[in-house]
Description:
Elements: H1 9-27, E1 42-45, H2 52-59, E2 65-68, H3 74-91, E3 94-95, E4 98-100, E5 103-105, E6 109-111, H4 118-124, H5 136-151, H6 170-181, E7 186-188, E8 203-208, E9 230-240, H7 244-251, E10 259-261, H8 269-274, H9 276-279, H10 287-297, E11 301-303, E12 310-314, E13 319-321, E14 328-339, E15 344-347
Helix pairs in contact: 4-5
Amino acid sequence: QRRRQFVTNQTRHDAIQALFRHIESNYGNLSSLIDTGSAAETIVVDDGIIHTNHLTRLFKHDATALHIRNFYNAESAKQLGDDLIQESLRKGGNNWKISTSRGLESSDVGTLGMHSPYNVAVSRQTVLDDEDAVAPIDEYFDGVQREFHSRRRISPYSSQDNDAHYQLWPLDKLRLELDEAWQFGAGLAREKNDKRRAFGGGLPRIMRGPTRWKRGYIHVDELGPLDVNRGLFSANIYLTMPNAAHTSERDEIPGAGALYVWPLGVRSRLDWYRNAITLSSLSAQDPESQHIIRKALGEPNVIRPNPGDLVLLCAQRPHCAVGFGDGVRVSLQCFLQYEREQRLLVDC
């Protein structure tokens, strides 16, 4: 009787890799998928206002990014950024984990706040032997509420009488103005179970020089083709920026401290599969993969935010924060879930 031959997982993986290499070598052409015209544009607004027509263009992928200057008062942004730097020195903070082909890995970015990002809480969720222990998901939602209440109080570095003063937290301002600007409204995402607890509205992010990835780590926050009916978008409010001239002089890094976004427009699964090997580099945090994807993508859109600026972009387009040698970048980030003719959902 013949012994049955079993295919190992590694053999299966190698066969799939070989298949996609063959497809890409014969049918792939990533450079042909780089958007041109209005779809490749970074919309720049100077009045500090979120306009409905600009959101529509962004969500329908008729623009690569939206840069709203002066969204938050620049001096207030700098003060808030300094306060958060002091908080990070006192409390430490956590590394902002990024999803790669190997799972969650450390990045150049740290976070502050009463809760971790939701993806980190999910990765820690396990069956607990101790019935009294709090599950990571419950810790997340409890921390979300504490974060909301604590951030609205004025910083102790800004006022002696902090119990009697409150501030307009920039992420609250963003949520309010998205609700006003988007015709279907905007608000916090909620659990889909009976509890219906609110997701986080965003967290502070701190990036200190010298960064590990000098030219920035190119990545996407969600892998998949662009769809005019739905998508994942990120919003970043900048509070403190490194001195670009100083860091460039020391490190000779063009664009030190800037944000790069590539107008890559993969709009079908067929095009995705045709270029799957190169696109897989977006989920690998290693120098070789970064070199491959950077070469394939060509020139990016360069955004140089100042304190108080808001930048929105499709998180499915490749992007990176360019590294720097000295200084600190402080920003506030949240994600927006877009579905056609539905309420925008904010989460973190």
